[in-house]
């Protein structure tokens, strides 16, 4: 597999090598050792999630308090999504910026999203099925959101997504500026310190 760092530090695109024949396709969609070489520490798996979304569904922008926050390894096993990684770490050189990766059942890419980063996606097909490997369990009191429609962040949703569908929770989420003013956001320094702690464990 090929792993490259995205324009947002501590996020990576993973492109697997696929082996096809008349029976179908085989691939390795996750290798802890290959990822560890790039990230600096292992992704200790604590929970696995799956979502199935209608075309146009937007999930996010979501993040969790750091530490421990939640690192994610995300892939689309059916259909297609556009996955967004948003830097919400106050003090980061790319604060407020984002990058995106098309995840689908053709190229079968994945993304790794480090703790402290914001995550969002929009479904480009019906029944877009997304699987997530995460390193900490869901903790409602530590989970937060930012509006995916925040004009300051300015996510670009492709035309093929059609009409956007948001949950009431995501619709009511604050802007990046409001979240920062409420001290909800992680900081760049706290994130770096947390990554260093994880690196030291290996």
Automatic annotation (TrEMBL):
The record's Pfam families line, in alphabetical order, gives: dTDP_sugar_isom
Q: Mind telling me which CDD domains this protein's record contains? A: cupin_RmlC
Q: What is this protein called?
A: dTDP-4-keto-6-deoxy-D-glucose epimerase
Residues with site note (Participates in a stacking interaction with the thymidine ring of dTDP-4-oxo-6-deoxyglucose): 138
Task: Give the family per the record.
Answer: Belongs to the dTDP-4-dehydrorhamnose 3,5-epimerase family.
Return the Gene3D superfamilies for the record.
Jelly Rolls (2.60.120.10)
Q: Where is the active site?
A: 62 (proton acceptor), 132 (proton donor)
GO cellular component terms attached to this protein's record: cytosol
Q: Please cite one Gene Ontology biological process associated with this protein.
A: polysaccharide biosynthetic process
According to the UniProt entry, its GO molecular function terms are: dTDP-4-dehydrorhamnose 3,5-epimerase activity
């Amino acid at each position: 597999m090929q792993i490259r760092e995205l324009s947002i530090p501590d996020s990576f695109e993973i492109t697997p090598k696929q082996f096809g024949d008349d029976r179908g396709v085989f691939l390795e969609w996750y290798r802890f050792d290959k990822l560890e070489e790039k990230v600096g520490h292992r992704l200790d798996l604590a929970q696995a999630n799956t979502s199935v979304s209608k075309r146009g569904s937007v999930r996010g922008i979501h993040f969790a308090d750091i530490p421990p926050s939640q690192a994610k390894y995300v892939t689309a096993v059916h259909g297609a999504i556009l996955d967004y990684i948003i830097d919400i770490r106050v003090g980061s050189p790319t604060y407020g910026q984002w990058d995106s990766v098309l995840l689908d059942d053709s190229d079968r890419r994945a993304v790794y999203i480090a703790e402290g980063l914001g995550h969002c996606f929009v479904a480009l097909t019906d029944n877009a099925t997304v699987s997530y490997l995460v390193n900490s369990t869901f903790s409602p009191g530590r989970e937060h959101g930012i509006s995916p429609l925040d004009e300051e962040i300015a996510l670009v949703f492709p035309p093929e997504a059609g009409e956007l569908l948001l949950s009431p929770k995501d619709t009511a989420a604050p802007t990046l500026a409001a979240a920062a003013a409420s001290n909800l956001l992680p900081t760049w320094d706290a994130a770096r310190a947390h990554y260093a702690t994880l690196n030291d464990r290996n």
